[in-house]
Amino acid sequence: TNASFTSHPSLIIDQSPISSEQTFQNLYKTKHKSCQSIHSNNNALLSTIEHESSSINKNLQSNLIWIKNPYRSF
Fold first, then answer.
1. What pLDDT does 47 receive?
2. Residue 11, Cβ density class (10 Å: 0-12 exposed, 13-18 middle, ≥19 buried)
3. Which of 10, 19, 53, 65 could form an S-S bond across to 14 if both were Cys, CB 3.0 to 4.6 Å?
């Protein structure tokens, strides 16, 4: 049996300079947005970690003070 294959239009690669430039710009924009999103997520995580660390440190300090002097009135 003879099988004939036809390329799907979206699989045809246009190698003209204009197309290449447009593809490059689109990839750059996508990568830039992705990096912005990653930075935003990292900043949110760092902020949360900083807040939690501060809270933990305050609790540790309170515990240490209490251990040193459990009958001290607060």
1. 95
2. exposed
3. 19
